[in-house]
Design brief:
The protein is α+β, with helices and mostly antiparallel strands and about 850 residues long. Helix content is about 25%, strand content about 25%.
Amino acid sequence: MFDKVLIANRGAIACRVIRTLRRMGVGAVAVYSEADASAMHVAMADESLCIGPAPVSQSYLDRERIIAAALATGAQAIHPGYGFLSENAGFVEAVEAAGLVFLGPAPDQMRLFGLKHTARALAIESGVPLCPGTGLLASLDEALSHADRIGYPVMLKSSAGGGGIGMQMCTGADDLRAAFESVKRLAQSNFSDAGVFLERYISDARHVEVQVFGDGQGGVLALGDRDCSLQRRNQKVVEEAPAPHLRPEVRTALHDTARRLAAAARYRSAGTVEFVVDARTQDFYFLEVNARLQVEHGVTEAVTGIDIVEWMVKLGAGQMPPLDSLAITTTGHAVQARLYAEDPFKNFQPSTGVLTQASFPADLRVDTWVERGTEVTAYYDPMLAKLIAHGSDRAEAIGKLSVALEASRVDGLESNLDYLRHAMAFEPFATGTHTTGSLASFSPPSRAIDVITPGVQTSVQDWPGRLGYWDVGVPPSGPMDPLALRLANRVVGNDQGAAALEITVAGPSLRFRCDAVVAVCGAPIAPSIDGVPIAMGEAITVGAGQTLRLGRVGQDGQGGCRAYLAVAGGFDVPDYLGSGSTFTLGQFGGHGGRVLRGGDVLRIAAGSAPRPALSAAQAAALTPSYGRHWDIGVLIGPHAAPDFFTADDITSFFATDWQVHYNSSRTGVRLIGPKPTWARADGGEAGLHPSNIHDNAYAIGAIDFTGDMPVILGPDGPSLGGFVCPATVVQGELWKMGQLSPGDTVRFKPLSLAEARAISAAQDEVLAGPVASPAGPDSTRATSTTSIATGHRDTALAEAAVIHRRAAGADGIEIVYRRAGDAYLLIEFGELKLDLTLRFQVHALMERLQSWRDSARLPGIVDLTPGIRSLQ
């Protein structure tokens, strides 16, 4: 047996071959292009070599580099897979001239079967039935003459073509005149051979093929048949073995004919003989021979129990037993679906991007090369995976595959997954009466939305976001204005936290593929459907084919920065660390881990909205007004006077109309205003500026003085930092941070804890509770207006940041408990200095609290985030 085999391919077939080699105890050598440096087959192989840039002509089609890679690694054989150089006779000759074994057919067999007119000639000599046709055509006049003899419709084919390329059905002479030169050009461009010929077109055709395996000495086995009739534009979509509803004598004749033709060529290794079968009469005609392993070989392996790749390796190593000593039996039925990165709704346009989710059932055979994080580029074939189900009969196999397709998930780009799911129930396929033309009438629905224009920084967010990962630096993300997102969801009947679109400054244009119910909430944005204005804060039906346009935020002189679009059912995005929210800096979550782009497709979650919707009156009662000045309620702390700021600093902080800086984003909103005088000269060990402290955890909504400039930390902000925060926006007022625009003014209003909790409770009563009668303006709108009547505050509020101190004990360590808004508590140990003993104490406390939380002894803790000498 070989010590090493090089796989001259990529993608699913490379991974498939590596798995077999590993099971056989043979070392696997992978080659890869620069675009595939992190591909799965590279990681799986025992050794790997880069053979050039992404274009196939400079990598996977470069014979010299592939052979050089095999020699450099000590590989003794090359497995070609399928595609690329797998049927290139010149490559085989070069491999063998280098003293290597080619695990595939001989070069003369590739030449013989590679051109359809020579294959037809051998078929005639071997008594194989041929569909009425011609040899190579020298001119259009000759083609027209033969077409009259054969009878229309005819199929004009490229002699060197494959995979449906270079094929054109012609119903009459005009079609043939129009197609002749274009098919020749296409053939020359794709196969460097402009030869074309004609065959009679069988309208009710089935595509049936026989898997053969030859020893190169005239011995050939037929390993069974496959039906590949479910095709779109001559490209296979679903294959199965054995072919359904064939009469026993027809099946036997197909096998015998394929075996006879392969034996006449003294065929070596794996190959496929393809036939056209008239669905009405079951008469069959030779189509072509694929002198290589086929994409659909897996269904034959499933019903025979044979590993065809293993046979190819054993034959090349001289360890294949005599073929006449092997008995071929089949058990049950197998069905394979081809999963492609393409959009069926856009005429199967290929799709590219990074897969944010790629999951398949563990109990199904899936030949794939993708996983979460794989980048699918435009350089190569867009096939992502082959899903193969085996059952005791056809119905069971299709049922298993259907369940598996429903359980599979691909996100980050468009795929034909939904198309395949619907195909399982497509009546002609379900009954086994489908032909190669059946899918021409197949147009399944799509529950999705096309992004025509993306707007500015439009992203998918859910509420409350990504919780529980603050300690490792992963922020919660989620909406900048949680009130508007929650409200939009409740208007369409969703749970308040369902994934929705956050729209910043200017909105997108969205074309709906299906009927949907939507609501737009937040700052005024002038939504319209096909140019007709619609109301905000109400449930509106958008019809299939209609376009929803969202204008610029802040209409008619009103303020605000963000609006939110919810769709009944919610947007269907994968959970990443427990949330569908987009974290653009981390490039994960939401749709593709980024803001929307033109051409994106947003899926709508299946099923209807789960809850009764808010009425327009209830929504209006909770909808605030949007201006250019904002009063925002805060709680003092965690760092205020007298430790860090003077009493005058705190007074000035609350008396100032701060201006929103243009350099603001989801990470934080910068503010322009007076500089503090500070209660200390510097930050001690932490730094030269008095705002410096050793790193501690930040709360969302903390007003962080980075030097002399305050920043309101947003949901995508840093988890740790070395600056003081004199106040924190309370949970019920965080929505206002999402509506701050450059040039707006902000005044912070100190609240008591009871007032802060009352604001959140009033919102939650409507958003989280059961639908009740419309709330009056005094009970709900007051929680959302841009003014809070707080009255005069005593200067004692300046010391409200510290809610408890534990005096230093025998260990000499004081513990200070600081308020960080109404949802966070910051615990600080000891003096403001770097001391590993303090860090260990922080860690010990965190572990104790985690154990109490996990055992339900201390409910309510969502995140525990350690700093240098603190725990939040």
